[in-house]
Amino acid sequence: MSIVLHVDGDRWRAHLDRTVAANPGLVPVVKGNGYGFGAPVLTGECERLAGQAGVALIAVGTYREAGPALAAFSADVLVLEPYRPTLHGDLAVLSEPALVHTVTSVADVLDLHSRAPGARLVAEGLTSMNRHGCRVEDYADLVTAVGSHLVGGTLHLPLGSGHQAEVSAWLTRFPTLSTWFLSHVSPDELGRLRTAYPGVALRPRVGTALWLGEPAALTVRADVLDVRAVAAGSHAGYRGRSMGAGHLVVVSGGTAHGVAMEAPSAVSSLRQRAIVLAEGALEAAGRVRSPFSLPTSTTGASTSLWFVEPPHMQVSLVHVPQSTIPPAIGDQLDVRVRLTTFWADDVVLT
Ligand SMILES: *Cc1c(COP(=O)(O)O)cnc(C)c1O
């Protein structure tokens, strides 16, 4: 019936509390699929953290996400996508006083302030990430245009470490800015930057390391919907794939949930390339390892299962070999998913 994210609430919340306590000024990021939990669950946690730990600012990805966040969170909401007059100029949410906008050009600041006079802004600098931002040579003019409505500067860095020099260059060049929002700066780098710039508030924006930083608290399980014994050489699925002897299992979870649809990855290491090649070869031969496995409790060891064919919209067909005791209808399989591309039918917090 369902594929469900189970959250060990005590363990997960202890990690959230520790992370927030260790990172003064941390801005939780709630965007997209809500990191597998859905935005409402995460916004609810932010509201708890607001009461307990004084979290007074969260970040959302887009203006579309801002409305629900403002309705569910009692303090401020930062929009990470930069304000663009042609795209966002008519939105009713613009003049919400709790909203903090991101700007990258003087023209956008003037336009936004003509529509929402008191609007508070962060000014984004263009980094080596090369996504959004104002070039460093134009940044002083941007800060001047924002004037007293400036909440801080903001820099979005690529993944990985080694950002200290790049961040330092901005902090040194614009010493009048007393607050900077930073993404993807490691705790070590942040510590060193705080030591080097003691008068500056450095506020990390964190999504993945906050919400998904305690993987042991998170399990995904899917209901077994059908189990049938199959003889060697029997066929199944839209493509009539053949199977070995054993059992055909129909299990909840398909493309609609993001099952077996990994986000495109850079595949940069030789080992990763070898894995892709090997799995590609198996795929060409009609065999793909599925993210479903029989739980340890049934077999003594977790047994990963193979797809009979690629996942369907709401279910998947997997094969249990003859040598393995099959699950029963109503049992659950463990599922390995990338939570940033996962949509659960339900999230159960215990
Ligand atoms: C998504 C995003 C973040 C959070 O990224 P994580 O890797 O999930 O921590 C921070 N800053 C910006 C600008 C983002 O778009």
Description:
- This protein has eleven helices and 18 strands.
- β6 (120-125), α6 (139-146) and β7 form a beta-alpha-beta unit.
- It is an alpha/beta fold.
- The chain has two domains: 8-211, TIM Barrel (Alpha-Beta Barrel); 216-349, Lyase, Ornithine Decarboxylase, Chain A, domain 1 (Beta Barrel).
- The model has no long low-confidence stretch (mean pLDDT 93).
- Bound molecules: pyridoxal-5'-phosphate.
- The site of pyridoxal-5'-phosphate has 10 residues, from β9 and α9.
Oligomeric state of shown chains: single chain
Number of strands: 18
The SSE order reads EHEHEHEHEHEHEHEHEHEEEEHEHEEEE
User: According to CATH, what is the topology of the largest domain?
Assistant: TIM Barrel
Structural class: alpha/beta
Proportion of β residues? 25-35%
Largest sheet: 8 strands, parallel
Percent range for helical residues? 25-40%
How many structurally independent domains?
2
Ligand list: pyridoxal-5'-phosphate
Distance between the termini: 20 Å
What's the CATH H-level superfamily name of the largest domain? Alanine racemase
Kindly report the average pLDDT value: 93
Label the overall shape: elongated
Q: Tell me, what is the CATH class of the largest domain?
A: Alpha Beta
Compute the number of helices: 11
